[in-house]
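Posting for a labmate who doesn't have an account.
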Amino acid sequence: MRIGILIIGIFAVLALAPVLGAQPSRISGVDPDSGKVGDVIGATGEQIDASKVDELYLTDGKTDIKTEIVSQNETVIKFKIPSKAKAGRYSLMIKTKGADAKLLEQPVRITIEE
């Protein structure tokens, strides 16, 4: 009886492993950390390729400004600072892909210069 329960437990862990091991998309840095309208900035992180991250925004907590993604892979998103961005400090926010898409504000900030 115990062996049967153990086998069921092992199968349950194996079935859940992809879900439990999945790491969310996240941005950990930007380079350069400041720029002007039209400049291309590189955001680095994990799980940020086009199959996982749909859109990238600048946010000041009140206003979200969609950026133009120039290129994107698993660890880097290159984006243009949009013309709607006014001078100031902004956080980056990603919109994930999928039926359960989420907006996730990232702990990374960029300064937009005049």
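Reply:
Got it, the structure tokens are right above this. The beta strands are 26-31, 34-35, 40-46, 53-59, 64-66, 68-72, 76-80, 88-96, 103-112.
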